[in-house]
Design brief:
The protein is an all-alpha fold. 67% of the residues lie in helices and 2% in strands. It starts with a helix and ends with a helix. The structure holds 3-hydroxybutanoyl-coenzyme A. One of its GO terms (cellular component) is cytosol.
């Protein structure tokens, strides 16, 4: 039976078709999807923290409303993605516990602090810009629920990226102090946003299998290159300098030459020793504990509904 099922699965992948929750799938396929989708969901939820830090201090009502909308969007992205992961057989509680107990990965980028308002611009432009480069190909991921969740998420991410660009543009057209604040934020977020795409291809243990299963469509380095190619002309429009003196386009290779990325910083952040790792988990735990009454009320309501249905 399993040979036939494996052959059917291989055929669906070979034809670049979708795998749906009810289809037979190799345990390793299920496992790597739970790994990636749950980590993606955790990233969205933790990603709410750096920005929510500025909602009460936004410089205008317009900026406050836009930032609140963006943070709410991230919460929604997290819920779509947790729901997609649940179709693979892991429960929401289990994923919550993994994150809260520090056993789950989430994107390195959210372990950096946001000391100025310009960080809201740099996050929108750089972090959401990187997320778009990474997430557009994921709309075609072979696992149906994941690809479909991505379509909705990508539509909202493009608004996130544009509002970040606009914040930086406004600052760069402002006073000298505002221009310095914007450039400082770009200096601090540029390299960590390149690390979002993951380690170099020759140090990426999951890439080969993920690409064979049409989960990952482009390699970490390819998407990093695509992202830099998107940033260079936009940085010119903004009038900001990308903090890499060796950045240049190589006509022959069609690639951007760039300085070495500091992978020890990446490893430190992944090991939990980034600038804000402890704070992010502390806030997540606190929010989970403070939200316990909502979960209890929802369970009690569902129990009563079920009882009524039996009357
Ligand atoms: N942060 C944390 N961990 C990372 C990472 C990063 N930036 N990049 C890689 N890793 C981890 C991987 O998870 C893997 O560890 P694991 O096996 O324990 O999961 C290890 O480093 C080796 O990396 P690989 O390249 O082998 O792993 P992948 O093939 O999974 O590639 C990835 C990494 C490109 C991040 C891929 O998992 C992916 O595309 N994930 C979905 C996208 C995602 O999670 N994006 C987060 C961006 S933030 C966001 O979306 C919010 C937005 O609204 C701003």
């Amino acid at each position: 039976h399993d040979e036939a099922a494996q052959a059917l699965f291989d055929d669906l992948i070979a034809k670049d078709s979708r795998i749906e929750p009810r289809d037979w799938m190799p345990e390793a396929y299920r496992k790597t999807l739970i790994r990636q989708i749950s980590q993606h969901a955790h990233s969205e939820i933790i990603g709410m923290q750096p920005e929510s830090n500025w909602i009460t201090r936004a410089p205008s009502l317009k900026r406050k409303a836009i930032l609140m909308a963006k943070v709410q969007d991230e919460a929604g992205h997290g819920l779509y993605l947790y729901s997609a992961a649940q179709t693979l057989g892991i429960s929401r509680e289990e994923m919550m516990d993994q994150l809260i107990e520090g056993r789950a990965r989430y994107s390195s980028i959210f372990n950096y602090t946001t000391p100025t308002w310009a960080d809201m611009g740099a996050i929108g432009w750089l972090v959401d810009g990187a997320a778009i480069c990474n997430q557009v190909p994921l709309c075609r991921a072979s696992y149906g629920p994941y690809g479909r969740a991505m379509v909705r998420i990508c539509k909202e991410e493009s608004f996130h990226q544009r509002q970040g660009f606009e914040i930086l543009l406004e600052l760069m057209q402002g006073t000298e102090a505002q221009r310095e604040m914007a450039q400082d934020a770009v200096n601090r977020w540029y390299w960590p946003s390149l690390m979002m795409f993951g380690p170099p291809d020759d140090q990426s243990p999951n890439s080969a299998q993920s690409m064979a299963w049409n989960i990952k469509r482009f390699s970490n380095d390819d998407l990093r290159q695509r992202f830099v190619g998107m940033l260079v002309p936009q940085a010119e429009v903004l009038g900001v300098t990308l903090p890499d003196p060796n950045l240049r386009f190589d006509e022959e290779t069609g690639q951007y030459e760039m300085s070495e990325i500091d992978w020890t910083e990446f490893d430190e952040v992944l090991a939990g020793r980034g600038p804000a790792n402890a704070e992010r988990l502390r806030r997540r735990r606190q929010a989970h504990e403070e939200g316990a009454w909502v979960r209890e009320a929802a369970h009690e309501y569902a129990r009563k509904q079920a009882e009524r249905a039996l009357e």
